[in-house]
Amino acid sequence: MNGRPPHERAGAQGARKSSSRSAGARTPIRTTSQTDSRFKFLRAIVVLLLVVALAKLLWVQTIGGRELAAQAANQRMVEQVMPATRGEIVDYRGEPIAFTREARSLSIQPSVERDNADERHQTDPEKPDWNQLVDEISDKFAEVLGDKIKRAEIKDKLTSDDGFTYLVRNIDVSEANAITRDFPMVGSERVDIREYPGGSLAANMIGATSSGDNGRLTGLQGLEAQYDDVLGGIDGRRTFDITPDNAVIPGSIRTAEEAVDGGDVELTIDSDLQWYVQRAVQSAKDNSQAGGASAVVLDAETGEVRAMANDNTFNPAIGVGDELKRGADLGNRAVTTPFEPGSVNKIVTAAAAIDMGVTDPEEVHTVPGSIEMAGVTVNDAWEHGPAQYTTTGIFGKSSNVGTLMLADRVGKDPYAEYLKKFGLGQKTGIELEGESEGMVPDRENWLGGTFANLPIGQGLSMTLLQMTSMFQTVANHGERIPPRVVSSVTQPDGTVTDTERPQGEQVVSKDAADTVLDMFRGVTLEGGTGTAAGVEGYQVSGKTGTAQQIDPECSCYSNSNYWITFAGVFPADAPKYVVGIMLDNPVRGVHGDGGQSAAPLFHDIAAWLATRDNIAPSAPGRPLTLEKG
User: Residue 384 domain-assigned?
Assistant: First the structure.
């Protein structure tokens, strides 16, 4: 029997048991230092995260907050361009030739609005579903627009799966408002429409516009392009905020800049006369089967353009692209396309001879049927032996030989100076694009036959505007006023600037000009070449012209193709208008009858003006003698 107390034996047994367990695997004992290290590590991580979070919060609330706020604002802010209304182009009476009408294009998002409507209907069955709305919207369009739109077309667009579609374009503002007032889901977009109430009236001068992505009208050609800075104005801008579904947030609209509407351009054009001349020119071209026809009407005193017309013009309201496909002519041949004028140019020789005093209207000249100058033989247009023509008769009958006899008295150098003073070989400076200066050989480059051609209107070229301006010089007592077509410009700020009238040049003396003007009445009297230009009860001065065209196959003058011209002053005793006409190789007369003269077209225009303006009839002119014996 063991002598140890029981509690000691138990402890010894427990010790043995513990020792027995330890013999297999020891359980690690965690010390206090290890626990503290891990706690410190976790605490450091938590502190670090708190510091990062606080730093981030501080950044958001200070520097970064402003940046984020700006980004958020930018995401919901929209800047909208507010196009300025394009200004007007008006005639000299203030009648509009081109103006801008504000219109609307209506659009919708069919797929989006269908989902919205059906969702509202499910929430509240009393609200219409999309099918009901489609019928109601279609009915409204039919009610407001009537024959302008087909109800079925609107319904087809509304029931499509498109994300966006235009329902109708370019309708009146009042019509658009009547629809969008009842159906706010229909979007309304401003569209500026350039209106040309006269259609093709003066289109070759006015030009056309195009519409940009923001609806702004921009000058494409003609005066619309040349005065685009004035007419276009300055666009405005406004900003507003939108929701994620593109709805405008109420109260967020703010204007940054108001639009400044465009200014106006006033022309010298007479719309009524322009309309008549355009019709007359087109009719003359069609009747005569000419390759082209043009006419210019100037104010005799100021040189201002009252009308300028070309055949086959265009309607800018239709669109330049469509008109080009039709074959319309968008150019302005009256200022861009020079031609050889023929005998119309003889007025330079007449004015020079009278101004220099080398002849007088009644002097009688023995004029043969042909003349040789510098090795070149020139004939009259008709066969004749020596004839006794007065100076007046030489031009009334359009004798080439007689004209060259007088030009020889003037001399080459003085004649070259008169050509220059009459404005030939140089641009008039008119406010129209593409003006040609024509062609006059430099004096130092004249060859032997040059002086045998220039006085009779061959070997030089001019535009119809230049040709008409020569006769304006004679009608205006010898003072040439370069022609202009713009009368005044009103800037967008309202400042009105009258176009500065060019300084006139006294080409020949007043007495010489008045004498020549009276002499050239002989062209329209019996025995003259332009009797068809005469207007009963009025004195008319003018000059016919026939010039051979260049045959491209031989680079020589053609014996079958001609430029047919006429320029005249009406009335001759109290000049108000100067009219120039050009026909490109007509087959018949301008009324479809025989002959190739442009004189009848002058008669038509002058007679119309006499009636329209109620011009008093002329006193009988002094008798003129064309031929003696």
Answer: yes
